[in-house]
Amino acid sequence: MAFRGKFSRTNSIVWLAAALSVALAFAAVVLAADDKSAFRAKAASEYPHRQTSEGITIAAQPFETDDETKEAFGKINPWRYGALPVLLVVRNDGKDTINLERMLPVYQLPDGQHVEATPAGEVKYIHGAGRPSGVPKPLGGIGVSRAPKNPLAEWEIEGRSFSAKVLPAGQAASGFVYFQVPQTSAAATVQITGIRNAATGKDLFYFEIPLSGN
Question: What is the CATH number of the domain that holds 117?
Fold first, then answer.
């Protein structure tokens, strides 16, 4: 009887180990399917709208249609809610590290009007913050009604924004910036200033990237 008990406990341990392995494998598959970092920008040289100056290449790609925004933002197309996402890809083929802390992207409309990028953390407030409001209850109390879900508050807006502060030689960085503009990118231009040589503090030449044509 003692032998059978020992054998039974051993089998139980083996079974539990096997079940745990299956559970972990299943969890890995689920996490891979729900990977929030699945979006990957291409190399700067693969985008049609780009400029190279002093060894630095910057590509700017607007994401306007639902098909274009799907991979990066899922079911939400930010431009339908007043925030045009423009992907910036910066490649440093120079000799020195560059400082991007003061990088300023500006969207120039065909009529010459300039629109600075809206900070990613403020995009969700474009149409006003959704705050709970007090609603009278039948017995004189105050109930709280939830504001409608704000599509611009989804994690992708900030999570996929351009956030690099420095960029060493031979490296690349990418992310989205957002512009509150009333029209598509036809005949528009993205201008970028404020990039500096991290060692000398010298400002690099500004970039002016047309968003139309190839």
Answer: 2.60.40
Whether residue 53 is found in the same domain as residue 118: yes
Provide the residue range defining the domain that includes 51: 41-210
Q: Are residues 25 and 109 in the same domain?
A: no
- pTM score of the predicted model: 0.74
Number of domains the chain contains: 2
- Let me know whether 48 and 31 are in one domain: no
One digit per residue, the tens of pLDDT, for the chain of length 214 reads 444 554 455 455 444 444 444 344 334 333 333 445 579 999 999 999 999 999 999 999 999 999 999 999 999 999 999 999 999 999 999 999 999 999 999 999 998 999 999 999 999 999 765 444 444 444 444 544 455 678 899 999 999 999 999 999 999 999 999 999 977 778 899 999 999 999 999 999 999 999 986 5
Q: What is the DSSP string of the chain?
A: -HHHHHHHHHHHHHHHHHHHHHHHHHHHHHHHHT-TT------GGGSSSEEEETTEEEEEEE--SHHHHHHHHTT--GGGGT-EEEEEEEEE-SSS-EE-TT-EEEEEPTTS-EEEPBPGGGGGGTT-----EEEE-TTS-EEEEPPPP-GGGSHHHHHTB----EE-TT-EEEEEEEE--SS-STT-EEEEE--EETTT-PBPPPEEEESS--
